[in-house]
Amino acid sequence: MPNSLKEDLCKKTKDTCSKSCNNNPVDNQCDVPTLKWTCSCGDNKPSVPSYKFPIPFTMCNLDHQNCATNCQHLGKQHNADQVCRLQCDSSFPCNSEKAPVDKNNGAAPKLDISHISGKNQATLLNLDWNVSSFFFFNILNTLLDFTVAKTRNIGIIAHIDAGKTTTTERMLHYAGVTRKIGDVDDGDTVMDYLQAERDRGITINSAAITFGWRGHRINLIDTPGHVDFTIEVERAVRVLDGAVTILDGVAGVEAQTQTVWHQADRYNVPRVAFVNKMDRVGAAFGRTVREIRSKLGARPLVVQIPGPMEESSNGMTSVADIVTMELLEWDNATGATIKRTPLVEGPTFEEAVRGRTALVESLAELDDTIVELFFDQAEGDHMQVKASDIKQAIRRVTLQGKAVPVLCGAAFKNIGVQPVMDAVIDYLPSPLDRPSAIAHHNNGKKTDIALQENGKLVALAFKVTHDPRRGALVYVRVYSGKLNDRSTIFNTTTNSKERVNRLLQMYAKDVEEIPHITAGNIGVIVGLRDTRTGDTLVQSNDSASIKSKLQLGRIDIPSPVFFMAIEPASASEEKPIEEALKKLLREDPSLHVWTDSESGQTLISGMGELHLEIVKDRLLNDFKCKADMGKMRISYRETCQSEAVINHVYDKELLGKRVRAACRIALRPLADDADMEEALDAGWDKEGGSLLQVDVDDMKEYTDDAEVASSSSAISQEEAQQAVKDGLLSGLSRGALLSFPLTRVQIRADKIQLFGADTTPGSIAACVSHAVFDAVKQASPALLEPMMEVHIEVAEDQIGSVVGDLSGTRRGHVIGLESSSPENQFVQQEVNSVIYAPPDSAMAGGVHHQEHATQKRVIKAHVPLSSMIGYSSALRSLTAGNGTFSMRIIGYGDMSQDRERTVIKEIKGY
Ligand SMILES: Nc1nc2c(ncn2[C@@H]2O[C@H](COP(=O)(O)OP(=O)(O)OP(=O)(O)O)[C@@H](O)[C@H]2O)c(=O)[nH]1
Q1: Ligand 1 pocket residue status of 200, Cβ below 6 Å
Q2: Long-range contacts (CB closer than 8 Å, 24 or more residues apart) made by 105-110
Q3: Residue 744, pLDDT score
């Protein structure tokens, strides 16, 4: 039991308690504030409100035997009503599944469920108590009426391989969702449930899962760390209230950590950091803390340091908590039991004292309340500030985004995970602590969506997946109101009514049906036909929101850089492939599917090689499509190099009817950013990397022909404006060389001519689109290639060969060389004065750190994407496996004519 809780209960600190209550092992076993806690000294009368719900036997964190022995409350624990009266540590499920039945002759345990609502109460009472504790726990979780204040919508974000899935699997086990800890390396994790994820040992789909911890409901979203799935992270981050950032204690703050960190910054998501893999050789907690400052710009608040490690022990075994001044040791195979003992004199204690002093000092800079407490109650002694006060101060500054609590451990060795779960409860916000969501109306006005359970329903579909049995599963976050099962809702993005068949709470691949999803919560809707990722859902009778097309804001999706062709194995396969692609598109808005006008081939484009590889995998294996997939190719862009003005007449016969329109198009290349800024200031519209202008003021009816003149086209200026814009967008989507989208061009459409009833909005759009195509052909079309900013981390002595390779055959430009841990003077001064980071040499991981510390450097370069294909293996051989790299697209670059000819030949075949 943490000191803080003892102090809370006793209302006295260890030193001021007149008797030995805080050190009495019998009295201080319980961390569940439910139960009557009686202090042996008798003069402390804790005024702890009774926990609403007696923790049932099955939620004990120890196995049956251990529980009985360690709790020392055997009599109370297994009493007649089968309620575990005093438990250790937390509300974990007991491994002894059948115990309630065995101990009570098969009768149902009596639970105090008076506070649970009628329908749920009935379900609980009718439960078959022969079910496993696992199932029981899930049901219990679902049925407990968690208040919003006890809900945490949390994401786990990090660089690939930092240990997100490994940590999450432990969380699920300790929370009672799984009986066994899943292992990424064995491919049996709960969170990575797609076959493709298990095969590769990585997370692709951010699976959402719900579990209970210390009387709170945690909705947890695991997110992928690979750069190809940045959109998946973005989707998750915008519905989160808080996040746990996992850092690899050996690698420190890595490139993708910086990307996801900045994504979380954009949505002001409070975070805690967990420095994982502290058992590995080369792990350095202090260095990683400093990098949180230098690379992420955040203010780290160290709340734990690695515990003492004997040279003989096999890796990290303990953590010192500097808030409670306890040593936490994990001493069983699954790490479910934590032994907490007060820190005793020695190097770790001395370091912890330094850490606590720094923590209180840091908090005092950021929070006035702690300053008052420091002087008034702790009499200026850092060690006398109560743990509970420190925790509350940490919570306040974390919620305000002023600081990030930092914890450490080794998830793979089952060390340090429960404190991370505690930190989620203690330091991260509930939906009530977050600002209102902002929605937009179609007239541009904004509305605050306050969290009100009785308010109008406003929900965001943040993810769609396809389940072979249940069909489309739409993950939603309800921002206001209550989403009921079997209700009718309205999708303001697709403008259509949808029927909610069922609502589910997800336990990764296991599910529980629920009657409603309340404001502030995350759940899954089954039965929606058209809803896609990013759509906004409201009540079907909310005419105001429907009329104004209320939108919670969509995610900006960067343009895809890779594509491949898909060829059905036979004509009968066309339909199933089309259906499968439709499903994939609904799930993943960063995928694009189109048909090549020349070859008639279906093409799919995506964010990276891995992204498309996964799509291929899912089409062939999950959807069982029989198709040949073409080679992965780069998605180039097209532009023009000169100006052109053309007048175009569109005159066609469609289904026996003549359709006509005419327009003028002026096209020119955009020279640079300044050119674009100038045009934007002059009122041009930006679409991707191009600018558009539509002028329908000089729209004229064609009057040369009496028949045409007599049949007015009756198209309003507004309709014409929209039709011209549609035509321009369609024209921009297809260049003249290889049908890649156009970029860096400025197009103006004017002089629209209408031909009576022969002109429809469709014919205007088609006319403008064709005109753009003709104009591009005349304006010296050219190909552009995706350019990447590449960061390569290598050892000092490998810089030469890596740079030589980059600037040689790979056509790259090196733009900088940095130390991998930029400990500049500013950071160094802060580390010494304000930011506390323990010395690595004295710490667990640091014992090995000294041996391993070869200085690494980061090479920054701009390189064409085409030169980066297969770079991982090239870098591996250049650096003997030690180099790592990350890259992101920064735009499209010019190509030499030779190179352009080669690419055209490669793609067209001539
Ligand atoms: N030694 C050690 N290895 C760890 C630890 N945590 C995770 N690993 C290993 O690191 C590798 C990556 O772990 P994952 O949990 O898959 O990492 P992830 O962040 O989920 O990776 P992605 O899903 O690909 O983004 C696996 O081989 C784990 O066994 C740790 O604390 N210590």
Answers
A1: no
A2: 106/130, 109/56, 109/57, 109/81, 109/82, 109/83, 110/81, 110/82, 110/83
A3: 93
Residue from 218, 220, 214 nearest 61 by CA: 214
Taking only the tens place, the pLDDT of each residue in 162-203 is 888 889 889 888 887 777 776 666 655 655 555 655 555 544
Q: Do residues 445 and 558 touch, judged by C-beta distance below 8 A?
A: no
Confidence of residue 2 (pLDDT cuts 50, 70, 90): very low
| Nearest one of 15, 11, 35 to 23, comparing CA atoms | 15
Could you tell me if the ipTM is greater than 0.95? yes
264 annotated ligand binder: no
CA pair distance 400, 653, nearest whole angstrom: 64
Name the pLDDT band for 746 (thresholds 50, 70, 90). Answer: very high
Ligand 1 atom at minimal distance to the Cα of residue 169: 15
* More confidently predicted of 742 and 123: 742
Residue 226 labelled as part of a binding site: yes
| Cβ-based neighbours of 623, under 8 Å, separated by 6 or more | 576, 580, 583
Domains and CATH numbers, the chain: 3-134 (no CATH), 142-433 (3.40.50.300), 437-552 (2.40.30.10), 562-634 (3.30.70.870), 642-779 (3.30.230.10), 785-908 (3.30.70.240)
| Cα 835 to ligand 1 centroid, rounded to whole Å | 28
Task: Give the closest residue to 591 by CA, choosing from 581, 599, 600.
Answer: 581
Reference 164, options 123, 201, 126, 110; nearest CA is: 201
DSSP 286-332: HHHHHHHHHTT---EEE-EEE----TTSSS--EEEETTTTEEEEE-S
327 CA to centre of ligand 1 in angstroms:
25
Reported in sequence order, the residue ranges of 424-481 that DSSP labels E, i.e. its strands, are 437-440, 446-449, 458-467, 471-480
Contact 634, 609 (CB under 8 A): no
For the entire predicted model, the pTM comes to 0.70
Q: What is residue 864's predicted lDDT score, i.e. its pLDDT?
A: 93
CA of 210 to the centre of ligand 1 (A): 21
Question: How sure is the predictor about 402, in pLDDT bands with cuts at 50, 70 and 90?
Answer: very high
The Å distance, Cα 618 to ligand 1 centre, comes to: 24
Choose one of 166, 220, 247, 254 to mutate for the ligand 1 pocket test, by most ligand atoms within 8 angstroms of C-beta. 166
Residue 265: DSSP 8-state: H
